[in-house]
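Q: Hi! New to this. If I give you a protein sequence and the SMILES for adenosine-5'-triphosphate, can you show me the bound structure?
A: Yes, paste them in.
Q: Okay, here:
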Amino acid sequence: DLAGDRDALLALRAAVGNHLKWDQSVSPCQGWQGVSCSPSPNQRVVELRLVAKSLSGQIPVGTVGNLTALQTLSLRFNAISGPIPADIGGCTQLRWLYLKGNRFEGDIPESFFSLALLKKTDLSENRLTGGVSSEFNKLRNLATLNLEGNNLNGALPSGLDLPKLTQFNVSYNGQIDGPVPASLPGLPASAFLGTALCGGPLAACPNSDSEAHKSRKLTLGVIVGIIIAALVVLIIILSICVLIFSRRRRAAAGRSTEAAADVHEGTEPITVTVAMTGRDAVKRSHSPPGSPLIGDGKKLVFLGSAPERPYDLETMLRASAEVLGKGVHGTTYRATLDGGEPVLAIKRLRDVHLPEREFRDRVVALGALRHDNLPGLRAYFYSKEEKLLVFDFVGAGSLSSLLHGSSFDHTHLSFAFFRPRVHGRHV
Ligand SMILES: Nc1ncnc2c1ncn2[C@@H]1O[C@H](COP(=O)(O)OP(=O)(O)OP(=O)(O)O)[C@@H](O)[C@H]1O
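A: Thanks. Here is the predicted structure of the protein with adenosine-5'-triphosphate bound:
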């Protein structure tokens, strides 16, 4: 009632405008500056206009908020600070609210959005903060909304929907950004000046979303490309490795087959020779000190029956030896055992890296070969470091001596005939 309005006004005056000359001996409706009332008999304060009256300080709750019949509140161009009173929603009849040009700060209070009859609101030129809430949509009668010159921030609600809105201004709120909502058509650019807004009457928004998306896509594309390229390179490398490996295996298998076939046909046993010939001295004097040849626990292995006059590794190492010739795969020595017999041709293989079982199989296969032109393979020695093949010595001289002028008798002929066919490749 009016008494309540009176108390509210006096409380407001006490807070922000003690200098106001309001005669308390009369009703507020009887000449209080800026106060207007509804007609009798149910008089109420319906208007409070204190424009540029040097009001300062904060408006407490229980003052303006208690003017429940107030339809117009205009406090423009004062120096009122602090928040808009949280109970402003109590002014349920409020239609015109003008607070421009003060120092109101903080967020627009929640109760403000219950002022369903509001038609014009001017909160400009204050220090209000916070976002422009979509709660404004509750103010269905709002035709004017001036928020310019505050510290509002964030994007405008895209679904801002105020059917009666004709005037809207959020300019000079530097932190308001994003697009001008499509729901606010036909507004001039001046409504949005001094903000970070775009689109609508302002410059078009950079298509940041799609650009970011594009660059994300590009990055993703580059990554996928790199992965595919790496896979292709890997596959190529693997294929090359497999190709090389299988070629080597095929070549090795081919050489074995070819050699076996050649031997059987009495021609050059290339692979067998390759695998089984070569390497340096047998004689102790030729062996470096600590040679694995000596005392490594390995034994000479005889192919077939043991010789009439048995010999072992020790005997062989004691034998007098001379180099017969050096081949690609090692060196062959003539070794005469103690007592002058037997005379052996010993090949010390070089760079033969076969497991013992395979080595033995090959030697056994080689030893099983029978041909007039093949010297008999009698024994072998295998250790990790040393591999020896022990042949019968064929005392026919060498092809070299034949070629370079030695006598040409039947013995030489047979040996000469043998050498080129077995080792012809090197000859
Ligand atoms: N059983 C043998 N009896 C007599 N002399 C031999 C015997 N075996 C090899 N020689 C002589 O030793 C020389 C060298 O033989 P070796 O087998 O090391 O030659 P190579 O076939 O050229 O060797 P490689 O196959 O390692 O290239 C031969 O040219 C030959 O004069």
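A: Helices lie at 2-16, 208-265, 270-276, 313-318, 356-368, 399-403, 410-423. Let me know if you'd like me to explain how to read the tokens.
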